[in-house]
Structures are given as C-alpha cells and as structure tokens.
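Input/output pair, single chain:
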Amino acid sequence: MPITREAVIWGYIYFLGRKPESEETIQAHMHTQDEQTFAETMLRSREFHLGNRYSHLIEMKVPPSLPQARQHVATSKIRIAIVGNCQVGPLSKCLQALSGSVAATPVEYTAKMYRKAAQGEMDADLAKLATGHDVLLVHPFEEIRQLLGKASALPGAKIHLIPKVEFSAFHPDLIYIESKDKIGRLRGPLIEYNSSLVFYGWQRGMKKSEILELFRDEVYSELGFYDFWTSAVEGLLREGSSIGFPLDSLLDSWKKKGCFMHSSNHPKLFVIADLAGAILNRLGIDTIPGATDYVADNFADGPVWPVYPEIGKRLGIDGNYLFKMHRADCPHDKPVLMFDLEGFVDTSLKTFSKYNKDDFVCRRNLDHYRRLEAPTMERGIRKPAATLPSETATSRRFYIPKRTPYDGLPDFHFWHKAIGGTVLREVDPVVSASLKLDRQTRIATAGSCFAQHISRNLRRHGFNYFVTEDAGGLPPEEASSLGYGLFSARYGNIYTACQLVQLLERAFGEFNTMEKAWLRPDGRFVDPFRPRVEPEGFKTSKAVEASREAHFACVREMFENLDVLVFTLGLTEAWRSVRDGAVFPLAPGVAGGVIDSGRYEFVNFQVSEVVADLEKFVQKLTKLNPGARIIFTVSPVPLAATYENRHVLVATTYSKSVLRVAAEALASGHANCFYFPSYEIITGNFNRSAYFNGDFRTVNAAGIDHVMRLFFAHYSSENISGEFNEALKLEFESMKEAVCDEEEIAEAASPNA
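Output:
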C-alpha cells in the first residue's frame, strides 16, 4: 500500500540525514509498495553507504591475524529464533549475553508479516524458522498462535510462547493515532507516540494555552489516568498466566525499581534481562551473572515518554514533563535532546496542522474527554458532564466564572450532604485512594492492637498477609497466645513512632540498647520491647537475647521484602530508658522490670517529635526497600490510662490529635505514604458513639465492619463484596482477640478490679 508524504520525508532524515531534494522526489517515493520496501531502498542507496551515518554503531570485525575468542564462558550453544514485537531485538542480545554462545535470531513481527499471516502465507516462514533453530520463541499474537499447530507438527520443533511486556500505567496519556484510510500512523515529535490530551485538544480546536491547562491533577483524575495501574497489572499478569509463564515475582521486583518502562511498550533493559533469564531457566540453561550489565539499552535511544509529576506522585516515583526525542531525529553530536511540555505541545500541533482533523482516529474512545472543556478557563473548577451546555455554531465551550469557588464541588466537600444527609452505614470519608492492593501484594502490619483487625481481615479475604515469623505448626490458639500472626513478625504492639523506628534500627544493628531483659517477680525474664510474647516468660536472660536475635532476622526479612506496610499509630505517652533513650511498649514494673527513676523516665511525645521519628523511619525503609509503600492509620481506641496529671479524656484528645497531624504530614509529604481514616470513622460524632461498646473504649463489630468495608472498597483491586459478610461473621466471633498491652496498666494499678 502506498506510503505517506510524511513517511518519505522522515525516512530521508532517518537514513540519509537530510530532507528530500524536491517535491518530485517525494511524490515518486510515495508510490513505493510499503514502508518496508521504502526502507530497503534507502538502505541499498549509494548515498547511505558512502555517508557512514551509522558507522559508529557497526561492530568492528576481529582482524584475521588476531586469535578468535575460544575460551569465553558459555553455558549453551543452541540456536534460538524469536518472533514478536520490537522487544525481540534486545531480548536476543540478553539471551546471548546471559548464555555466552546462544545464537539468538530476532524476527520482528512487522506490518508486512501481519498481512502475510492474515493471508495464510506465514506457514512456510514459520516452518523454516522451526526447522532451522533448536527453539522457537513466539510472542502470543493471535495470528501467530493459529499457525503454531502446523509448525509444532514438524520433527524436532520446540516452540515456546513468551510474554511481551506492555504496561501503560506510567504513561496513560500516550496513544497511537491511526489514519482512517489505514495508510499508517500519525507521526509527531516522538515518532508514533502521541498525547491523547493534545490530540483531543487539536480536534476540538483548542488553543495551545488551553491544551497546556489540561496537564494537571484534576484532569488526570477525571479521565481515570490514576486507574491505569490496576488494569496494567492485571493485563500483564493475565498475559503471563494465559501462556503458562507467570510474571508475578518478576513484576514485584520491577515495581521496586520505580518506573520500569521507557514508554507503554518499551521496557527498560533490566526488564528484558529478567525475562531472558527466566526463559533460559525454563530451557534448563545456566545464566552468567551480571552479563546483561554490558548490553546496550536500544530502547533508551528511541523516544522516551515521561512519567508526569502528578502520576509519579501517586506511584511513589519522581516525574517530569521532559519528552526525549528519538536519537535518529538528533544531530550526531547531540544524541540526547528533549522537549519540555510547551515545546512538545507546540511541535505536536504544528505536525497535526498539516492534516485534516477527521483524517485520523485513535483506538481510545475520547468521547468522555468532553467533560474537560468546562475547567480549561477556570483551573481546578469543573462541572459534572451531565450539566454541560449543548453546543451551537456560535457557543463558547467554557463556563461563565462562578459566584464562589465552592460552586459545583462534589458532595463530599459539604457537611450537610456528606454527613447530615447520609445514613450512618453509608458515610464514606475516603474520597479517593491511589494505592491499590491485590492478592499478590505483600502486605505487612504493625502498630497498636487496633491494627490486628486489619491483619485478620487481610488473611480472611485471601490477601497476601505477609508473615515472616510464623508459629511452625502450633495450634492457632497457642500460636496467638505466643504472639504469632497478630502482626507480620512477633514484635507485639508498637504504640509509638519512636518504637517503630527503633525496631528497624535494632533489627539492622544500628541501635544496640543497654536494656536486654527484665526480671519478673516469679524469677522469669521478659523482653522489655515485647513483654507479652512469652506468657510463661524466659528461663534466663540469655534465652531472651537468643529469641530476640531469631526475631530480628524475621523483622529484617519483612522490611526488605514487603510491598505495603499498614502501621496504626496508637499512643504518644511512653516510658524510655534514661541511659540510651530506648522506648518500651509498657512501663517498667507492669509486665516485668522495676520502677527506677534513675533508669527510666516518662515521655509524652510532641507533634514535631512524632513527625521526626516517622520521617526517619520512612527514609530508612525506603533506602532498604525502594518500592515500599506505607498506609498510616490512627487507632480510635482511647488511652487505658495516662501518667499525665490531667483527665484521661483530655490526655486521649491530645494524643490522638498529635498522631492524626503527624500521619497527615507524612501522607502529604511523601508519595509512598498514604492515610486511611479509620480514626474518623469510629470516633466521628456522626455515629453518636454507636461504634463503641459500653465501656466507650473498645470498638464493636459494627465499627469494625464499617472500617474494613471501606478499606477493602477503596484500597483493594479485587472484588470482595460477596465475600465480606461471611468473613465478617468470623470477625464478630473474635472481637476480643485483639491483644492490647496497655490494658495491663489498668489491671496492674487495680489488681482487684
């Protein structure tokens, strides 16, 4: 099929480094059969060979006088052919590097091959590949799949389906724009990659300044850009599972490295390298460690789409608006050039202006983009699509400025709509949740006793509740009494932020406290930092330390490998060592140890101190585990007792206020930190204390129901609505299972109560 005028011009620039000399030359090449034929013509031209345009990319042959490498490391010499999309090139290089001598032949599935497959002309080609190679690796294109049966029947043919990595969550604005007459794709400043926002704005006749206003958080939220993560993960995992090539563990490791894609279909090299390693392992071929460190990332030479800052913040990574050009579009001495957002939009519009607005379409349905036209004049203010005015030949698309900034805001902004006009069970203070959990996400929990409800519900709903310190087959009741399974490791309740950061520091040898073991009145010993994990106590102080070392190994494993940590902030009051500042979950003398003002002191942490401790923890955890994300909650359970010289109600209000402010500071200041309002759901005056039992302290079943229902509704990507009622029945039966260390304070003070 004839090629476009633009394709001819682009081809001259790409292959020869110049534009065509005349319009006649362009017209002559436009009659070429297809782009593949045109490219072959350019490659065979005398000018291409004499110009040495790509001489710096050509490998130098070893002179005959030098000895050929014969003793290099090699694990296999089988012949592999790979049929698939553009990823087959770098994949073949990684296969060779990891094996030393595997001969990998990439066969890119081009438009020409697609037409041949559709016309039934691929049988012979596949047969030739299958018989000429020991292994044939194939991306699961439907047309190729239909031919595999015939090729598989050939003697000795070994055909394996392998996944292609396509992941749109980092670049949800990126689209392909197709010509309606099937001639080809519209090429913009980043070759065939184009912006859906720019394309929509151009089709609707928006000015450049109006299109630039579309690149912002409200628009991305309105169009569902933040929902791409869930569908991208599901799509990638489905691709792997459908061909018997699970990608779960690989995806977990990729996510921890931040953005693992240059664009929606161009993975970064470490992704391709991991796939190559997995393929070789499946073929029983050993791999050479670190070999892919020396493979060039060809996709990095191509166009690279940025992760927009607002999208990056939701995903816990850095973002920008720098669009990297294809190296072929750059001068030889300036191989890396970028557009900023304004330059990208301007160049896109200039490119689009060469065509009629109805000549091109994109696979994404852009009808719902019309709702964006209301806010372009007034940044951040939008009306529901249902209220958009009908358009006429003379009507403006934009609304008249509103009387107040609050006009048209969603119901959750207003008390009388979100609370006063809502039944108790339907109150939902979670406006949106950018973090989504699925059943593969490794979720760890820590904090006060309220956090135990979350861990139990995660387990009951089949989520991957990440436990690194298990009971080793003990009966459930005995295991629970020994502190197993209450949290991800056997550290017991962690009430304060200082306790949390010190746990991490102690586990990794950064803080060696002088407090080793506390003696009980019965002659047994307890761990000062988890005094209730062994109800019978330890026989010796050395036994305490031995148990702690084994425990620390499990804590290290948890912090290094978790995907999400749910941490419930419980208290600001604590007791700590005067000698080294170690903070304890219980005061000395309650479950062990003795009251000694020379060794221990009371502390009631202030906001600045709690924030500083949480900041330190986030920094340390992120360094250990770059992909880790944290959901902060505040326990709604009031203090069992206070050491301050004031009423326990006032002390509770202070403590919870400090913790709530600290949680907000972390959630708003870190892209990998989030806040879930369990505290507001339970303590909000809208429920008239309906979520507390008769003691006005312990949370009842209805309250747990409300909290967990909203937690899973907003943070889970799985459909569990049908499962919740049955699981909740079990939860009702175990409401008293939560182990709260601080209750021992009141019991110790009133032994006859």
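The CA atoms of residues 209 and 342 lie 9 Å apart. The two ends are 90 Å apart (CA to CA).
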